[in-house]
# Entry
Amino acid sequence: LKNTYEVSRKLKRERILNAGIAVFAEKGFHETKISEIAKKAKVADGTIYRYFENKDDLLMSCFDEIITVKLNEVKIKLEKIPNKGDKLISFIDAHIKAFTENPSIAKFMILELRQSPEFYKKYPKFWPIKRYLAYLKRLCEGAIEAGKIKPVNPSVLTIMLFGMMDYVLMEWALTDKIDSLENIKNEIQKILESGIKK
# Structure
């Protein structure tokens, strides 16, 4: 009975998180009401407060859930690639695929990462993509060690790559300007492999 109860709680929590991601993506954090998330999750308003302290806590938990799941997905795909240099090139493909499988997740990440400065001041330890960036930095370091790319600053390269992918996903999720993510991904990989120097 205890295991059944725990499974039930876990499933209900996941349902609330998925509803939160969908509603936050559609309406934005400030315009979203807990009652709307509860309705989407098909639970009573009060049920949400059994799992999360408030709307802020729910938002941060949504981020944590997405990063945990998507980072694991990317890691599993890249574990099959033995060459450290090839891992970095393949990361772009894995990242774009992971975050475009569900438009709500891509839109949620794009919009809510750009929270107001007040939100970050209120929660100074809140930096949802910290683990994701740390993993990408390790891939950059591995590619440098393997001689796949030049010995550039891995921290700066990490920022450049993530910023580029963030913009590509933003264009994909919020506009209709990008016709083919596949073509753009291939061009990015080509530039990364060959550089821009003439």
The two ends are 68 Å apart (CA to CA). The chain has a mean pLDDT of 88. The first helix runs from residue 2 to 27.
